[in-house]
Batch of 2 targets.
Target 1
Amino acid sequence: MSIKKINFKNAIKEYYDREIRVIQNLNLDEINEAMNAIYKTYEKKGTIYVCGNGGSAATASHMQNDFNKGISEYVDNKFRFYCLNDNYPTVMAIANDIGYEEVFRFQLINKINKNDLFIGISGSGNSKNVLNAAMYAKECGIKVIGITGYKGGKLKEIADYKMHVAEEDMQIDEDIHMTFDHMMMKIFYNFLTKEKITGNNK
C-alpha cells in the first residue's frame, strides 16, 4: 500500500516566517537586563534556581546543563544553576504529600541566600507552582527573571527582569525560550573565555 506524499512546504515556511517575526520583535533591552542579572549572580557565586512545567521543565533542565557543564567546563568560576525539576523523587513526594503547587517553593524554603537568583519559565505566565516559588523568592529578597509567552500572565507582572515572547502560540514561545538558553550560553562562553565556540566546543 502506497501512502500519498504530502507537500508541507507552505506550512513549514509559514511556521518559520512567524518565528522570525517574533524574534525580530523581542525586547533586547529587557533581555540584556536579565543577562546582566545572571552575570551578577555568577560573579557573586550565587545559586541560580530555575524551574518550569512540561516543555518549560525541559528548557530549565537544559539550561542547567548548558551553564553547569557547557560553560563551566572552561572557566574557573563555575555557574551554580539548580533545576528544581530534576530531583524526581523529591518533586513527586512534595506533589503527593503536600500538593503540586508547592513542588518548587518547598525546595527553596530556608535555602535562598542574598546573592541568589530565581528564573521561572512559564508559557502562560500563570503556572501556580512557578508563581509560588517566584513570590517566595521575592519575599526572601532575591530577584526574579520571568521567561514567559502569550501576554506574560502574573509571572511577567511580578518579575524583576523579563524575557518575554509576545506570541499566542505555545510551540513558538517554547522554541524561543530554548533559543534564549543557547543564545546566553554562547554569549557568556565567548565573554568569559574570550574565544569563539567552534564545533564541539574544543
Target 2
Amino acid sequence: MIDRSRSAAVITAAGLSLRMGHLKALLDWNGMPLIQHQVDCLADWGEVRLVLGHEADRLQRGLRLPKNVLPVINPEYREGRATSLRVGFEALSGEPEAILVVGVDQPLDRLSLDRLTSAMNAEDAIVIPVSEGRRGHPVIFAGRLLPELRAIDEASQGLRAVVRRHDSREVSVPGPLWDLNRPEDYAEARANQRTFARPGSEEVLD
C-alpha cells in the first residue's frame, strides 16, 4: 500500500477540447465543474500539479484549490499531451513514493483510488485500473520512474513507451471508467447513475 501523503499526482487540463466542442474541464460533474471534482478527489495526496494551457485564466476563475494543488502552465500545450505531462512531472519536488497521472476529462472516484493505492506495493512499477476487462485511468507509477516520465515525448508515444518497458499490476475497480472526449461520452456518463469513468481504450496511455 502506498502512502498518498508521500505521493504526487499530475492532472492535465491544458488541451483545446476540440472533440467536445467546449471546455471539458468546466463540464458539470455531480453539481460542480469537473476540474473542481478532480482536484478535490486528490486533496489528501502529498502534492498535485494541475497543468493548464488553453484558457488557463478562465479555468482558474472560481476554482477552489486544496493546499496541495499547484497550477502550472504549459505554453506548448498545442504540441500534444506529452508536453503537458512533462511540465507536470518537472514541477514535482523531491522524490514521491508514487505518481498518479490523470486527465481532467477522466473523472476520479474515491473507491477506485482506494483500491489502487491499497493494491500498489513497493515492488510495483505501474498500477492500472481495469473494469469490464479493459484498462482505464488513473494510472499510478512508482516514484522511481520519475526520470523516465520527465523524458517522454510525442515521438516516442508518451506514457505508452514507459508502460511497455515495465511490468504492470492490473487492479479491478468499479466501472464503467469514463473518458469524456465527445458530447456523446458526456451524455452517456450523465445518464449513468454510477459516476465512475468509462472503459478507456489503449488511448488511456497517450
